[in-house]
Each structure stands twice: as structure tokens, then as C-alpha cells.
User: Fold Succinate dehydrogenase/fumarate reductase iron-sulfur subunit from Streptomyces ovatisporus.
Amino acid sequence: MSAETHAGEGAGTHIRPAAEDAAGTAPGTGTPGAVAGGAPDATSTSYIAHFRVWRGDIDGGGLTDFEVEVHEGEVVLDIVHRLQATQAPDLAVRWNCKAGKCGSCSAEINGRPRLLCMTRMSVFERTETITITPLRAFPIVRDLVTNVSYNYAKAREVPAFVPPQDLGPGEYRMQQEDVERPQEFRKCIECFLCQDTCHVVRDHEENKQAFAGPRFLMRVAELDMHPLDAAEETGLDRKTTAQDEHGLGYCNITKCCTDVCPEHIKITDNALIPLKERAADRKYDPIVWLGNKIRRRS
Ligand code: SF4
Ligand code: SF4
Ligand code: FES
Assistant:
């Protein structure tokens, strides 16, 4: 996640100037075709939608109702920007790219973790009330902005790739399928929607210490399947640490993380389940068991 910070706005928090909207144009309030009062004209390309937006800070808050104009082709982030421009200039929201690539604009829309910039208004009924709330699994900073530092702490706990000792730069060789397999995981934009939706931490703050979450278990899986990773030669067994230090056992493969991933990474099927299988193979491998027993005795 990039962390663009504007002076006076708080870390990565944008307050839109009243002179521009998402498309860089003046946010009109009287566009021809916009139908007031939440009674949309099905033939019009503009309408007034009803939003409920969570406002508050660490000390508490609640949902505030707004009526906002919507134009054809807009995404929810456009509406949040129009809200800032016309009705709530101090509404805090984090965003950077508006292209689904920086992972900053994560929030919950009607209770589902989503990117504000990649959620089209056209997926909702025009008469529907759209509720926007901050990510539930992380502490509130203000309004739609949460403190996601849990994720950075977990990232730091995963030991990096260990280069092979006997090969120099330029001498690495890998099968094409070994290159392609982790490529899927490298698409991650670190939006932390998967971390937010995972029930292991979503309702259980107490699990955060022991559980890295799907995004970082996926990173462990990626490194464990890397044919050139020399971690084991340094005494680091990634399969064992996945269980003992990153909380792989907490995951009961519900696939909720996969369901919300905006990059459509098959987190559960391609990373977590294979990692669980390899960890179980390691744990119950009789040769490994015997070796460990002999090592312990000596
Ligand atoms: S599959 Fe595992 S990591 Fe993903 S949401 Fe379910 S419990 Fe969490
Ligand atoms: S795995 Fe998907 S949902 Fe999780 S942080 Fe990466 S892009 Fe976001
Ligand atoms: S603003 Fe970058 S992902 Fe939404």
C-alpha cells in the first residue's frame, strides 16, 4: 500500500478541495436529469442516491445520512469525493490511485469489504441505501480511515527470501512453472480486504498476536514453494513456522479471503491449502519424526 500524505490532512488522508470532483471537474448539484428525493427516473443517467456514511473517531461515532447526486459510470469513491466537495468537507477517506492498484481505499460497503474506487454505482439499485463504513477489523483513525499497522507488523515477522549460497546473481535458474506459480501471489496490492474479512481476527482481537492473516500466510506459502529459497539450510523451516509462529492452524479454509480479493487471487486454494498440506506432510513424515527424535537425544 502506498502511503501518500498531504500536509494538514493526516497520514494518507485526503480531503478533496471543493473545486474538483473525481474526474477533475466541478461537482455540480443541479445536473439536468438528476432526480431529487431518491425517486429515480429509470431513463435518466443521473439520479440522487441515499448514502449512510460512518463518521467518528476512536472515541465513537455513528452513521450519518446523505443524499448525493450520482452520474453514469461513477464509482463509490466518486460519490465520497462529491460528498466532500458539497456537504462534508472534513470527511476523512484514504485513497491514492483511483485505479484499483494502490490498495488504499479499502472500506466496507453494505458490510462487504471492497475497494471504493473499484465498486461501480451501477451494481446497486438506484433506490438502495448504500452504507459505507470503515474496515471493521482495524482500529479507527477517523471516519473511513483505519489504522492498518497490524498488517505491517505481520509483514515484518515473515523472514525474507534466503538466496542460495552456491549461486551468484545471474546464475539462478527455475522451471517456468515455478516462476508462474507465485506470480499470482505477486499481484497482491496490499489492500488488506482479506485480512479484514477473515473471521479469525474480524471478531477476535485476541487472535491478532498469533495469526498473521491470509495475506501473510500467502507470503509464507510463496516463499516455501520457491525452489531457490535456501531458508532450510539456515535452519529456518517455513512449514513449521507457518504453524507455530504465523498461526496457520487458525485458518479453517472458509475461503472468505478469496471471495473479497480484488485481484482475484485464489488465496485459499493456491496458497493456504497447499501450505497446510505441506506442513502436515512435514509434521507426520516418519523420517522427519525420527530425525527430530535423534537430534533431540543427542
Ligand atoms: S480461508 Fe482461512 S485465512 Fe481465509 S478467511 Fe477463511 S479462515 Fe481466514
Ligand atoms: S491478497 Fe487480495 S485481498 Fe489480500 S491484500 Fe492482497 S490484493 Fe488485497
Ligand atoms: S484508490 Fe488506489 S486502490 Fe482505490
Notes: The CA atoms of residues 81 and 280 lie 49 Å apart.
